[in-house]
Amino acid sequence: MNRVLAATLKRPAAGYPDLAAVHAALQALVADDLDHLPLPGSGRTLERWRALAVVGGHDLGLCKLYEGHTDALAIMAELAAVRPPADSTWGMWAAEPPSARVSVRQDQGACWLDGRKAWCSGASQLSHALLTAWDEQGQQQLVAVDLRQPGVTVTDQGWSAVGMGVTASVEVVFEQAEGTAVGGSGSYLSRPGFWQGGMGIAACWYGAAQQVAQRLHGHCLLHDEPHALAHLGAVDATLAASRAVLQQAAATLDLNPGGDCQALARRVRAVVENTCEQVLSHVGHALGAGPYCKDAHFAQLAADLPVFLRQSHAERDLAALGDVARHALPSEWNL
Q1: What domains appear along the chain, each with residue ranges and CATH number?
Q2: CB 136 within 8 A of CB 105
Q3: pLDDT band for position 109 (50/70/90)?
Q4: Among the residues of the chain, which ranges form H helices?
C-alpha cells in the first residue's frame, strides 16, 4: 500500500498553494481508497505508521489533514460508530483551550452542539468532523458532525501561521448544530487508541525529518566535506534511534492492542521530537541557507515541521514522562 501511496502523491513544484489544493489531494487519496489504513494494534501497526510517514515527507500540510482523517476513521471503528459516508473527509478536533469550548445536549438520540472550537484544521473544506464536546454532566463526549449545515460557521479567526499555514486551522462556531454521539462519555481519552494515535503523530514527524535528512545525504554523496559528514553521522544516529523506537512500539501494540500504552507513547513522542529537532539543526548547519532559499520542498518542510512538533507540549510532556519513569522499576532500562 505504501508504494502505491508514494506513487500516487504528486506534489506541485511550488507546493500546495492553499487549503483547497491540499483538500483536493486528500480527496484523491480517499477516492483511491488510500485512507483505509490498518488500525492501530491490528497486527499491521507499522504499515499504518509508514503510510503516515510517507505523507509527512511529501507535505506536512496534507499530512495534517490525512492524519486527522485517518485518525477519525480509526476512532469511529474502535468505538463501533456508524460507517462514515462514502467519499467524506474528516477532521479530528480535540483541542480544549479555556477560551474555546463546545457544549453538547443529547435529546432522543440526537446531539445538539453550541460553542466555539479552536484549532480546526481544514474546516472550510472538510465535509465532516469528529470533535470533543462537554455534556450536561461536565463529561467529555465525542460527536460526529456534518459541517455542511446552517448551524456551523467556519470563521477566519485564530490562525495566522506561516508554517503549516495551508491547513487553515481556524475557529469554528456551532449554534444548535446537529451531530451524532460516538462512544460514551469519556471514551475518547479512556480507549486504548488514544495513546496509539499519539504515536501515529510521531510517525508523521519522522517522515518529514527523514525527507529533510535526504538533502544532506545527497550533498554528502557529491562533496567530501568533513563537517558535513559529521553532521550526517549525527543525523544517521538520531534517525536510527527513532526508527528503532517506532518499530519496537508498533510490535508492542500488535502484541497487546488493549494494553495501557501511555508510557510507551510518551517515550516514542519524546524520542522522535528530539530527532526532528536534531535533524533540522544538523542539516541547516551543514547546508547553510541554500536549500531554505532555493529548494521549495525543503523550505516548506523546514517551516512546517517546527509548528507541527508543537503538538507536543515540550517540557510539560517530558515532566509527565518523568513522573511515569520515577514510579517504574529501574530494571525496565536493562538491555
Answers
A1: 2-78 (no CATH), 90-188 (2.40.110.10), 189-328 (1.20.140.10)
A2: yes
A3: confident
A4: 2-8, 19-31, 45-58, 60-78, 187-190, 193-222, 226-255, 262-287, 290-294, 296-309, 315-326
**Cβ atoms of 275 and 241 closer than 8 Å:** yes
Q: So what's the pLDDT on residue 329?
A: 82
4-14: pLDDT as tens digits = 788 889 888 88
| DSSP category for residue 310 | T
Per-residue pLDDT tens over the stretch 221-257:
999 999 999 999 999 999 999 999 999 999 999 999 9
| Residue 203 cell numbers, joined | 510517525
Amino acid at position 26, single letter? L
Spatial contact of 203 and 53, defined as CB atoms under 8 Å apart? yes
Torsion, Cα 105 110 113 119, to 10 degrees, reads 120
34: left (phi over 0), alpha (psi -120 to 50) or beta: alpha
Whether the CB-CB separation of 155 and 117 falls below 8 Å is answered with no
Residue 34: CB partners within 8 Å, gap ≥ 6? Answer: 1, 4, 5, 8, 51
Query: Facing residues of 177 across strands?
Result: 113
For residue 113, give the C-alpha cell: 452542539
pTM: 0.97
Q: Beta-carbon neighbour count of residue 288 at 10 Å? A: 9
Residue keyed to cell 494515535: 197
Model pLDDT for residues 72-93, shown as the tens digit of each residue = 999 999 999 989 999 999 999 9
Of residues 249, 157, 169, the one with CA closest to residue 201: 249
Mean pLDDT of the chain: 96
Q: Are 235 and 257 in contact (CB under 8 A)?
A: no
Q: How far apart are CA 227 and CA 109, in angstroms?
A: 64
What is the rounded CA–CA span in Å between residue 277 and residue 238?
10
Q: Are 67 and 204 in contact (CB under 8 A)?
A: yes
Cα–Cα distance for residue pair 152/146, rounded to 1 Å = 9
CA 58 to chain centre: 14
Mean pLDDT, residues 30-50 taken together: 97
